[in-house]
Structure formats: C-alpha cells, structure tokens
Design goal:
binds iron/sulfur cluster, seven-stranded mixed β-sheet, six-stranded mixed β-barrel, alpha/beta, 730 residues
Length: 730
C-alpha cells in the first residue's frame, strides 16, 4: 500500500526523491547519502556467518540506517563482506513477522501473545499426555544468541521433558562435532584464525571461503610466503587464490586424506615423538593406510600421483601446517570419518596446539559454536556427555534438580525427528528460526512429514516464509540488531551482540518468548529463578561451563565491554587460550588423541544412464542460507536475483544446450524447473553445480535422504541427476 502510494506520488511529480538523493557530510562518514548518516553507532557482532566480524549499526530516529566495520574488533580488522556492509537493511524488511498468528478455518489470523502462549503450552501438554513426552519435537538453530539457546535447552529438556531436540546445525557441522569427538574426545576447534596466517602451508578441503567466509581471505593475503593448497572438485573463487588446486573427484576427500597419510608415513615425514607422547592407535593406523597407495588414491581421487606426492611433501615438510574445511567435507555420509582423517594428518605431523598448526572446522552460522557448547542437543551443556553418570549428576547439582530428570541419552537428531513426524510418533513440532521448507534435503518427504502434524509452531523473525506459511501457530521474534546476548565464532571467540533498535510491532526477543512459555508451563521459577535479562542466563552458563574445556567462567558482560571479544577457554582470573591441546593432553579418558581408521566408500547415489550427472550444491557470497534475510537487501538481491546451474560446455554440447537456456534438474525424487544455465569450465564434465538459497527454484527438491550414520548430517553434495531443457518433456 505504502509502496503504491509512493509510486503514484512519483508518477505525479509530487515526490522527486529529494530525501533519497540528498548528500551531507557526516563526522565519521564524510560525504554520503544524508539518510545514511546516523545519530549514533551501536557496536555489535555480525549475525550471518561464523567468522564473527565486529560491526556497528548506525541508528537515526530509532531506525537502522547504516552498517560499518567495528574497527577495534580483532577478527575483521576493519573490513566487512557485502552481507555485513548491508546488514542493517534486514531490520527494515517488509517481510518481518509482526504479530502472533493462529490458523483458524485454514487462514492464519492475528491473536494476542497471551492466547498464543497459553494455547502452545496447553496443546504441547495435551499431545504429550496422549502420546507420551517424546511426541513433542523441537528444531532450533545456530542463529540464536548463546543465552537463548542455553535457556531453550533447559526449557525443552527439563520443562517440556522431551529430548527430541536438535538444531539446523546438524545440517551443516555435526560431522565436525562427531569427528572431533572421535579423534580428540571432545568437540572444540583446536586452532585460531591467526593460525591461517602463521602457517607456512594451508590446506583447505571443501572450503570455498572466498564465497562463504570472505573475511578469512585476508588472513591468507597477509602472508605472502605461505603455500595455499585448495582441494575442491570445482574451480571455486578460493581455488583461484591457491598456489595449488587439487580438482579431486566428488567425495573422494577421505581417500585423499588417507593417501597423504600413506606418503607421510612411507617417507618418514611424521613426528614420531609427538605420536608416541600424545596419541594411541598409530601402529594399526599405519597398517590401515598401507592400502591407500598413491596409485590407488590417484584412481579414487582423479588426481595425478605427482600432485599427491607434492601435496603430502608440502604438508609433511611444513614447519607449521593448517588444515581448514567446511561443508565440502561435512555434507557427506562419510563426513565424520573424513573429519577424523584430517585430524589424523595433524596428529601424524604434530601440527596441533602450536602457532600456525591446527586442524580447523570453519563453522557455518553466526552462533553455531555457542549452540554446540551451551546446548542440550548432541551434548549436555559444557560438552558433558549424556551417558556419563558423573556429568549428569554434576549438572543436576548445579541446577538443583533431581538427577533422574536429566536425560541419559541423546534424543532424535534432526533427520530422525522428521522421520518420526512422518511415522506419527512425533505429533507436535516447534521450529525456531529456521526454514526447513527450503533447507532440508528431499523436500517431498519433508512436506509429507509436516502435513502429518497435529500442531506446528514456527517462531521466526520473518513471515511469510515457506515454513511459517504451513504453521498452525506463528510466533514473531526479534532478530539481530533488536536483542542482546553473545555469539561465539569458529575460533571460539565470544563477542557481544547488542540491541540497536526496537523490534517491529509485537515481535519479541526469543529469550522473552522462552521465559513467557516457561511461565505458562509453570516451570519458570524452578528453572529460571529471578531471570529477567539474557545476562542472567549468561551468568548461570559461566558457572555451568566452569572447569570444562569450554570454560566461560572468566568472561562476563563487563569484561566483554571493557576488553572486547575473547576466546574460550577462559577460567576466572586466567588469560584466554588461543589454542586447545597446546599441552598435548586431549579430552579422552587416557588424555591421548586417537587415530581413526575408516575406509573410503563411494557416495551413495552413483550416476546412471538415466541420471548421468553428479549434482553439487553450495553458496554464493551475496546470499545467506534460505535467503529469508538477504532477499530483503536490495543490493544483494540485485547482484544475485535467481538461482543458476553451472555445467561444463562439453556436457552442454552433447545435449544441444546453450548458456542462459532455461533447464530443469531432475532426480529420482523430484524436479527443479526453469533454472538459468551457465556454461563454465569451473565445473568438470559429468558434474553440475547449483546454489541452495532459492526457494523459487529449490535444489532440495532433488537432493536425497542420505545421512552420515554418526553425525546424521545430510549428504547434500552429491546426487545423480539429469538436465533437460525446460518444457522438453511436457
Ligand atoms: S564474513 Fe561473515 S561475519 Fe564477516 S561480515 Fe561477512 S557474513 Fe558477516
């Protein structure tokens, strides 16, 4: 309506865009658009990715009008990527969720918060009374601040009494968690960003940081003497930055890691003193990798033996070597095993716990790490283990609750929650700040599952999204810039998140929603005694984490304000530790890291005559996940308004396809129609690539329900498809 009025005024010459185009000089901005000169700047942390850049939001007359880098933040060193530079736009988005909505006679109608929360408590309790406590499932996110996630974990596990609780973090980095646990006895990235610049060899595997974690590229730039090796089936922007690109076959990374280990051992490029002092299982592992000869690994990976030797020699002879990975490794049915295989390389060479030397998972979401540490999903808070009596007892005693209320086993992981919804053992579902109807693999199965629910609550900052549109109840939440808390980034650095503006209409911070629901459930005083603000949650979390690997006890809101962001572990009165395992002591019962030996297997869905191409999915720098936020940022949306499909010209020629043709991508599960074709040598013949951000042309219509057996992370990266000209089969 407002837009129509504006258009009419413009057409009638009543609006000459004077406000939009006037320029002024600001103290901190120089000459710029007058409407972007703020009255004040609010320091906070970027709410997109796990790099965790410091950012300032410019505020004018109660509205966010600009963003700029927070100069004092140690991570981004005065820079931001395009998403960070335009982040304030999301606060003004037209698609914000404004009021609680309830589906009545097929329509979502506005109701009060009191009605919404009362109904939610009553329907959850009624479902659980009828079908059992575990008939309620909860799917959360790495987008919440740590304080909210910690509060939610207590509310779900102790207040609602269900352990069927997981997050969208399982869709991106649960394999890193599982791999670390298998190798080192605990989750926790061992290194720091400064290791990227201090290493003399950096090996990036399945990590396109130039698109997905752009600010990390400056750590590569700052050391001209290092050698950068990038292993990726595509010639990504990151591969273009590399000294050596390893264009390996899809999902042959595990074989590559074992092949490097084989050469390191054969040529004595290992650190025997480190292995003897700090690890177990070396002799068995050495026998295991005998089978991964350069000849065989060359066949499995498609890389020449010369490239394999060159990579292994560079890595093995490095004074300090860093291995980084992201979703290219994690999005796999062998993700956990591959993470452990990369950790094996660090252990073999003693490249861990020293400056420049680390295996390092580069995480996805802004606070995926906070959810891993403070969460109550794959671990108990503080990296405690569900199956350890002492861990449960310790936590129960800190909280003053009976020990038998603590779950003794992890509940269902995200894909298994969906499976249980499909099988009707889960009847009610609460989805918080995530959009599975774009992001979950094999959308047809998901749609069938969600249509089986008796009650679906979706709590989100945006509406409509494909997921909120299906909800029985929509709860409008405040987003980044409208609430307070902390995020922890990939290098374990805790940064403050601050409120710059009020949430729109009746949207409320997730923290307030959780406490208000606890009130309705009658457990607020017991679980959250006297809590009013996120700082109350943070202070309890400091006590819960004290003495653990992820010790936050020496970090407070005051210290973050006075000293800036800091890494954990930081015990009360101690300095922060830049690296884990510097003393060679690991979180295993005997204090030693383990060599893990898992054989490489082909990916689950191999190409056939009918589906001859291997589809790879991924991201682009302009967009964030399901595009709920970034499609609302004009500059980002203009730069990348629609999905595309990358195909090698040789494959296109065989099919008579040309650049910019519209094509359909078809798998055994579904079809994505009308995708713009781009012909490029970036992808090898037999492979195609498509970004996953776009709900209008959703690549997850064709991806498969195949999951890592340990981490339960989906194998998004490879499935067998064919490409047809759009309309060819109609
Ligand atoms: S690199 Fe990540 S954290 Fe930094 S500005 Fe970009 S999206 Fe934000």
């Amino acid at each position: 309506m407002i837009a129509k009025l504006r258009d009419w005024k413009r057409a009638a010459g009543l609006d000459i865009l004077r406000e939009q185009y006037s320029y002024e000089r600001g103290d901190s901005t120089g000459y710029t658009s007058a409407r972007k000169i703020p009255e004040r700047w609010v320091a906070t942390t970027c709410g997109y990715c796990s790099v965790g850049c410091g950012i300032e939001i410019g505020v004018k007359e109660g509205r966010a009008v600009s963003s700029r880098p927070l100069a004092a933040h140690p991570v981004n060193r005065g820079k931001l990527c395009p998403k960070g530079l335009s982040e304030h736009y999301i606060l003004e988005a037209e698609s914000r969720a404004l009021y609680p909505l309830f589906r009545r006679n097929g329509k979502q109608v506005r109701i009060s918060w009191d009605e919404a929360l009362g109904m939610m408590a009553e329907r959850f309790r009624a479902t659980q009374a009828k079908y059992g406590a575990r008939s309620l499932g909860v799917i959360s996110t790495g987008q919440l601040v740590t304080e909210e996630f910690y509060t939610l974990g207590k509310l779900v596990q102790l207040g609602l009494g269900t352990n069927n609780f997981d997050g969208n973090t399982t869709l991106c980095m649960s394999s890193a968690v599982s791999g670390y646990k298998m190798s080192f006895g605990s989750d926790g990235p061992p290194g720091a960003y400064e290791d990227i610049e201090k290493a003399d060899v950096v090996l990036l595997i399945g990590a396109n940081i130039a698109d997905n974690h752009p600010i990390l590229c400056q750590y590569l730039d700052s050391n001209p003497h290092q050698t950068v090796i990038v292993a990726d089936p595509r010639v990504t922007k990151t591969a273009m930055l590399a000294d050596l690109h390893l264009p390996l076959k899809p999902r042959s990374d595990l074989a590559l890691a074992h092949g490097i280990a084989h050469i390191l051992i054969r040529y004595s490029l290992i650190n025997r003193a480190y292995i003897d002092a700090h690890t177990t299982g070396f002799d068995d592992f050495a026998r295991f990798v005998e089978a991964y000869t350069p000849e065989r690994v060359s066949q499995l990976t498609g890389l020449s033996e010369e490239l394999l030797y060159k990579t292994a020699f560079l890595y093995g002879r490095a004074r300090a070597a860093f291995i980084g990975w992201t979703m290219g490794v994690n999005h796999s049915t062998q993700g956990s095993a591959t993470v452990s295989a990369l950790c094996n390389l660090s252990l073999l060479t003693g490249n861990i716990g020293r400056a420049g030397a680390s295996p390092f998972s580069i995480t996805g979401q802004c606070n995926a790490m906070g959810t891993r540490e403070a969460g109550f999903t794959s671990s108990l808070p503080g990296y405690r283990k569900f199956d350890q009596t002492a861990d449960r007892a310790e936590l129960a005693s800190i909280w003053g609750v009976a020990e038998d209320r603590m779950p003794a086993a992890r509940g269902l992981a995200y894909p298994d929650i969906i499976e249980a919804v499909l099988g009707r053992s889960i009847r009610a579902l609460w989805i918080i700040a995530t959009n599975p109807l774009v992001s979950f693999p094999n959308q047809d199965v998901l749609r069938q599952a969600l249509s089986n629910l008796d009650f679906l609550v979706v709590q989100d900052g945006f509406h409509p999204t494909p997921t909120t549109e299906l909800a029985t109840l929509v709860l409008p939440a405040a987003i980044w810039g409208e609430k307070e808390g902390t995020y922890t980034n990939s290098e374990r650095r805790v940064s403050k998140v601050n409120k710059a503006v009020d949430p729109p209409a009746e949207a409320r911070p997730d923290f307030d929603i959780f406490l208000a629901l606890a009130e309705k459930l009658g457990c607020r005083d017991e679980l959250f005694p006297g809590w009013l603000t996120p700082e109350d949650a943070f202070n309890e979390w400091r006590r819960v984490s004290a003495g653990r690997l992820c010790d936050y006890s020496g970090i407070s809101y005051e210290s973050l304000a006075a000293d800036g962001p800091t890494q954990w572990p930081r015990a009360e009165g101690a300095a922060a530790a830049a690296r884990l395992y510097a003393d060679g002591k690991f979180a295993t019962p005997d204090g030693r890291a383990k060599f893990i030996a898992t054989h490489w297997e082909p990916f689950p869905e191999q190409p056939t005559r009918e589906y001859p191409l291997v589809l790879n999915t991924g991201r682009t720098v302009e967009h964030w996940h399901t595009r709920t936020k970034t499609r609302e940022v004009p500059i980002l949306e203009h730069l990348s308004p629609r999905a595309w499909l990358e195909m090698n010209p040789r494959d296109a020629t065989q099919q008579g396809l040309r650049s910019h043709d519209r094509v359909d991508v078809v798998s055994r599960r579904g079809r994505v129609s009308g995708v713009e074709l781009r012909l490029t040598e970036i992808v090898a013949p037999g492979q195609i690539f498509m970004p996953f951000h776009f709900s209008e042309t959703n690549v997850n219509e064709v991806t498969q329900s195949a999951f890592d057996p340990i981490s339960r992370e989906p194998n998004y990266k490879q499935c067998a498809v064919r490409v047809e000209r759009t309309g060819a089969t109609q």
